[in-house]
Design brief:
By secondary structure, the chain is mainly alpha-helical. The protein is built from seven helices and no strands. It has one domain.
Length: 241
């Protein structure tokens, strides 16, 4: 059966309404949350599980060796085994720190991509009118969001986590995981382990992802409001003329 022109027009109007009601900001926010969970979290947990299992098996083997030592007059064999156990513990700590650095780098990259994507969707109504300078990417984002959209990123729920991820990433990249002055003075230093090195546990990562997800939800809602208010102002101006 061939559709009539009027029927085609109805379908077209329905499709137009669907696209008009489609909130790109919320869509990008959902993509951000999906990436946090299905890329960063799953990649980290998969690697953590493999390394934890290997470390546990190695430790079990070494302690069996230690407990089986019966003839060791000078204690040399026991001392050697204990030294190897200590080495394996240090190795496991270094592996966890490396995993943390990987996860933090991925999170920082996702945060930047998300912030950039939100801005692009308002390029027509809120065009970029100048270059934002500064050594730190996040400071430039704060200035740009404030100028273009009148949104103070520092007041968005979850922003403290965004900042800590960014500064922790710099420490992992440039300081070998040791906290620099910026990290010490601008964050709550939640990622430092007992040795004073930036690290994460699986439980911490889950908490961080929850906080970043909330940041995404809050920011997308505020950016969506900016778009709606701009559309309303435009419509009001057109009606006035």
């Amino acid at each position: 059966m061939i559709a009539t022109r009027s029927e085609i027009g109805i379908v077209a109007n329905v499709n137009d309404m669907t696209w008009l009601n489609f909130d790109l900001f919320k869509f990008e926010g959902q993509m951000f949350q999906d990436s946090l969970n299905h890329r960063v979290r799953e990649a980290y947990l998969a690697a953590y599980s493999v390394l934890e299992k290997a470390n546990g098996e190695r430790q079990e083997e070494l302690y069996k060796q230690l407990n089986s030592i019966t003839e060791d007059v000078d204690g040399e064999q026991r001392a050697l085994t204990e030294e190897v156990i200590g080495y394996e513990e240090i190795r496991w700590l270094e592996q966890r720190e490396a995993l943390a650095a990987m996860a933090i780098a991925l999170l920082a990259s996702l945060n930047k991509s998300f912030l950039d994507a939100q801005k692009r969707m308002l390029n027509k109504t809120h065009p970029l009118e100048k270059d934002y300078k500064g050594k730190r990417h996040l400071f430039r984002q704060i200035a740009e969001y404030n100028d273009r959209f009148k949104i103070d990123l520092t007041t968005v729920e979850g922003f403290e986590t965004v900042r800590e991820i960014e500064l922790a990433r710099n420490c992992c990249l440039h300081e070998g995981g040791s906290p620099d002055e910026n990290y010490k003075t601008q964050t709550k230093q939640r990622f430092l382990d007992a040795h004073g090195i930036i690290n994460l546990t699986p439980e911490q990562l889950d908490s961080i992802i929850g906080e970043l997800s909330q940041f995404g939800k809050t920011l997308t809602a505020r950016m969506s409001d900016v778009r709606k208010n701009t559309s309303q102002d435009s419509t009001a101006g057109t009606n006035a003329t």
